[in-house]
What does this fold into?
Amino acid sequence: MHPAVDRILRDLEGEELLTALSARLTTSDLTALMLEVMRRRAADLTASKVLAQYERDRFVRPAAVDARRLLGLELLALDTVAPPFVPIVTSPLVPLGSHSVVAGVHQNRVVTTIRGSEVAADPTNTLALEAALRRRQLLAGDAHSSTVVHLAAVDRAVRAQRFEGPRSFAHFSLIGLVSAGRDTGNRSFEAASLREHVQSLISVCERSGHGQVHVQLTDFDGRYPDVVEETSEALTSEDVRVTTWPDRTAARGYYPGLCFKLSVLDGGEEVELADGGHVDWTRALVGSDKERLMISGLSLERLALLN
It folds into this structure.
């Protein structure tokens, strides 16, 4: 047994366990303890029990999608959005609290590890952290830098909450985009970043053979009617329909202001593929109210399953 586990068990005598585990133990001590717990649990397993879990556990079963088609779409999507978005390869893990503390997503909706990290549930969370680091470096050289950091990544995201419906999965492939910059006045960042994100995802759909696109724009706090109008005029075409969705309620707390949903027409049915909007994450990450962040994501899994 690890010496830290011996010491922890002695120290916890008579103390309420949950409080000790969540508040008293250091991260390294908690990790040591949980590793010992998992080691013991694994030691009691048999090969047949491992196979039985593999058979029934939705988190570990293979995806119901053609691997070659999905990989082709991942490359197509990254090629399509670059430039302006710079593709990077992200880790499948992010620091503990990346979703709950930064993005306001309940901790129970992500898969938490015993090593002080959690499995990425959305590439935009990881990209936001990386963009915040890059913005901080820019500001170190120029305190008023307005250089926008555009990043893209394809992740195999894992989400712990149960979804209903034939196009809902415990793990799936997403392309995520983020644009991190600075407020330069006249809502210029908001207008430019919204248009860039939506146009990039429209292009992904078009290049994959799904050119009939419907974009729904929402301004939750009513501060950006001019941006909504300009974006609608800029993106509307023969194959792209842009409408406003003032009655949208989903993700109202997630996106404080401007956001959108994107769907494509498939066999006479509108299939939702993408979602995005402006969030305030980098204000806290960088430590400046002037920081701005636009995020978006498109389900390559759903796209691969279309006709």
User: Anything to note?
Assistant: The two ends are 55 Å apart (CA to CA). The chain has a mean pLDDT of 92.
